[in-house]
Amino acid sequence: QVQLVEAGGGLVQAGGSLRLSCVASGRTFSTYAMGWFRQAPGKERELVAAISRGGTTGYGDSVKGRFTISRDNAKNTVYLQMNSLKPEDTAVYYCAAGPMIATLTAGSWGQGTQVTVSS
Fold first, then answer.
1. What is the DSSP string of 53-108?
2. CA 9 to CA 19: how far, in whole Å?
3. Contact criterion met (CB below 8 Å) for 82 and 20
4. Average pLDDT of each block of 10 consecutive residues along the chain (119 residues)?
5. Who is most buried in 12, 39, 80, 109, counting CB within 10 A?
6. Quick check: 37 and 94 in contact, CB under 8 A?
7. What are 117's strand-pairing partners?
């Protein structure tokens, strides 16, 4: 399985921006669908955004219009640009990789990066 390492989390004020990155090991990154999930304390994990091998993207309703997922296959990296952040975006954000978007939860996971949005 591919190994994933996230970075870019931190503390930001409401209305601010952060960019998360997730670097994957191996030489088959382009064959994976990639996604970002998040989990806040006391809440279930939710899909934030996903991108297919071909570059098709999808977003959770709560982040549409504010977050953008992208990938750079040459750098084995997937990004999550987060704009207009809200306190309710506070969570641990996880990167995931799988053969297709529908099977991301059964694939490889990173260790997570904390995002905290202050009001």
1. TT--EEE-TTTTTTEEEEEEGGGTEEEEEE-S--GGG-EEEEEEEESSGGGGGGSE
2. 8
3. yes
4. 94 98 92 97 96 96 98 97 98 95 90 97
5. 80
6. yes
7. 12
